[in-house]
Amino acid sequence: MRKVSFTEYGGPEVLQLVDADQPHAGAGQVRIAVRAAGVNPVDWRIREGQFRETTPIELPAGVGLDAAGVVDEIGAGVTGIEFGDRVFGEGSSTYAEFAVLSAWAPMPEGLTFEEAAGYPSVVETALRILGQVGVQPGGTLLVSGASGGVGSAVLQIARRRGITVIGTAGPANQDYLRSLGALATTYHDGWPERVRQLGRVDAALDLAGSGVLGELVELTGDPARVVTIADLTAAEFGVRFSGVAGSVQDALTEAATLIAQGTLHIPVEKVYPLADAATAHVDSRAGHSRGRRVIVI
């Protein structure tokens, strides 16, 4: 099979499209013929070696966590699923023609494979950090870097819970944030004052890692009310860095319910062929996205 792999840490140029043996489903796992794989910032952060000290990996290594596809191998102990089922979920080395998933759920009706591949990690992350930041119904949450996949999920889930959301993004994404029910402003010079004009801030999430933790602490008045998933300097500000996933299976189940209810939709901004994984990483790293980037097989 074809898969994307890298033999050393580095820039996008270290990614290679190689021939590899097909993986096999172990106990409690399923294998899918991948139709689409979600592109997440953690993918290029791992490739760059940002976590090599805390979470070392064995090289060469595959790339990707999220995927949607068709079940073609079922591991021992797995029930409630059949060959040919269309599923979306999380596993490893998903930038490939075949991948093993450790958590999955049936694809909601009406979703394409490309759309489904964009949900698993971002919904898990959104649910996790909303719980960690502790904002309550009736409160106001500031989301820095709100237009990407995680931000899109956070805005919709928070609004459904009765939380007011202020989101920052580039000028081109202001209407998009408003369409998701957020109060929107840009992140250019003077943004903290523009946020204050929109209302008080009870808690804040940093999704972009753009060096704004000091301002977020000032706006909330307490570093304990700020959570980041992108800024590795969090400890310097007394802010929590959230990098350990919770229950992906629970998140997939909730995602499927929200999608079916029509209360959660994350658009696909751009798709890439497997051979263009490096370009997908370059674009993901540049930010300014509206929804998700997806690799199609």
Automatic annotation (TrEMBL):
The keyword NADP applies. GO terms for molecular function: oxidoreductase activity. Residues 10-295 form the Enoyl reductase (ER) domain. The keyword NADP applies. CDD domains: MDR_like_2 (cd05289). Keywords: NADP. It comes from the Bacteria. Pfam families: ADH_N, ADH_zinc_N_2. PANTHER family: QUINONE OXIDOREDUCTASE. This is NADP-dependent oxidoreductase. It comes from Nocardia vermiculata.
